[in-house]
Write a structure and sequence with these properties.
heterodimer; A: alpha+beta; 7-stranded mixed sheet; 6-stranded antiparallel sheet; 4 helices; B: mainly alpha; 9 helices; about 0% strand; globular
Chain lengths: ~250, ~180
């Protein structure tokens, strides 16, 4: 590899980070060539490259989700079915009664444990506040599956929320952390969970638009607050407000 | 474009969680479509192939192992292989035809005004590059992929990609100069 290849890559990296690569080339004997190549790369980047229209994207997404469901269904069906008879159970009535008692105790314990492990009230959802304009939620993300939502409604893991033109909404999590969606924002709540001790576990996928995040200081190692965007991942582990703009 | 994807997202997609599969599609469809568009040179074919890429993705997702390859690199390898299959099925004349489509200088008015770089002109100019150089240009400057991932997809070292990148830009620049296409 030549040094020129390295120099070009350095300049292109500056360009990718939003800097002006051309400024640093003045006076260099190879700067003319470098400058023209960097300029060409920038021109290519800035062209209005073709893309799929929204209708095609939604149709294709539907097809892909449908194929995904079909594949998972056939995987589940291909697993050997559990078998086993309960013949002659009447011969063991006393044993069955004992077993029933044990089952009842286990059930009571499970319910109690479930209540404990499901975390504090409201940890599994975010509440909509400050709603303005058109707000819709979808369980699947299909184009025809959007339902209007309003202040006070709850959104859960796996749901997708979008705002229309001139529309805003804030999602409040149980510990006070909140995220505001600006107009034309599309956000998937891939995980909304929490636990006792103000443990918050949030994972968001921002498909488009703008969001503003105010994160309460996260408690303990198990707390997470992550936002995935088309350009990367933002993680908040300290008191911080994140402003992110996706493409 | 940064390629940072939480492994847990992939695991959940592998388990068939629809919302995550949908998010993966939304995240990568633009890059895959553009890559295929510049490889095959036709909007409809690129659209069909993009669809095929994501269907393959859901079919093969359970085999994907993030220890070997980044998810984006894996997806682009599927796209690359599908476009190679497409070319095998197609007439070998396709590339030649694309080149011939571009107006010859002889057909232009004598006092030719310098033309600006457009998507169409770029596509025609890319056709003149060797396949690997074309891939590097598209992945680096149109999809916005880092050098490391381009190297993964093309099974080359990063240094080798840097060399291909420079040679590709030089060749592209010369072609555009020859066609009197300006880029600022």
């Amino acid at each position: 590899m030549s040094k020129q290849d390295d120099r070009l890559e350095e300049r292109l990296s500056v360009l990718e980070e939003g800097g002006q690569a051309e400024k640093s080339m003045v006076g260099n004997s190879n700067s003319s060539e470098l400058k023209s190549l960097v300029s060409l790369a920038a021109s290519i980047r800035n062209l209005p490259h073709p893309e799929l229209d929204q209708q095609t994207i939604q149709t294709e997404k539907r097809r892909i989700l449908s194929a995904s469901r079909e594949i998972n269904r056939s995987k589940r069906n291909s697993k050997p079915a559990e078998s086993g008879g309960i013949t002659g159970l009447w011969l063991f009535v006393p044993a069955a009664a004992g077993a029933a008692l044990i089952v009842l105790m286990v059930f009571v314990l499970a319910v109690g444990a479930g209540l404990y492990f499901s975390g504090p009230s409201g940890a599994q959802a975010a509440v909509l506040t400050g709603a303005v304009g058109v707000l819709e939620v979808s369980d699947t993300g299909y184009a025809d599956d959007w339902l209007p939502v309003a202040d006070g409604d709850k959104v859960h893991s796996g749901q997708r929320l979008r705002t229309g033109d001139e529309s805003w909404v804030t999602l409040e999590f149980f510990d006070g952390t909140n995220v505001t969606l600006n107009p034309n924002t599309d956000l998937v709540l891939s995980k909304v969970s929490g636990d006792w001790g103000k443990v918050l576990q949030v994972e968001l996928i921002q498909n488009g638009g703008e969001t503003y995040h105010q994160v309460v200081p996260l408690q303990g190692d198990r707390s997470t607050y992550q936002v995935f965007t088309p350009t990367g991942e933002l993680t908040a582990g300290i008191p911080i407000a994140i402003y992110c703009r996706s493409l | 474009m940064l390629e940072v994807l939480n492994p847990s997202l992939i695991r959940r997609a592998q388990e068939g969680e629809a919302v995550v599969v949908g998010a993966l599609y939304e995240r990568y469809q633009r890059g895959i479509f553009r890559y295929l568009y510049y490889r095959v040179g036709d909007h409809h074919t690129a659209e069909d192939l993009t669809s095929e890429v994501f269907l393959r993705m859901v079919e093969k997702l359970s085999n994907y192992n993030d220890q070997n390859l980044s998810f984006q690199a894996w997806l682009f390898q599927i796209a690359r292989n599908l476009s190679i299959d497409h070319y095998r099925k197609m007439s070998v004349q396709q590339d030649v035809q694309l080149e011939d489509d571009f107006p010859e200088r002889g057909n232009e008015p004598l006092e030719m005004v310098a033309q600006e770089l457009t998507v169409e002109k770029l596509r025609h100019a890319l056709v003149k590059l060797p396949e690997n150089q074309r891939d590097v240009i598209v992945m680096r400057f149109i999809v916005g992929m880092p050098i490391g991932e381009v190297a993964e997809i093309l099974h080359k070292t990063e240094d080798s990609i840097k060399g291909l990148q420079r040679r590709a830009l030089l060749a592209l620049r010369d072609t555009l100069v020859e066609w009197e296409v300006t880029h600022v």
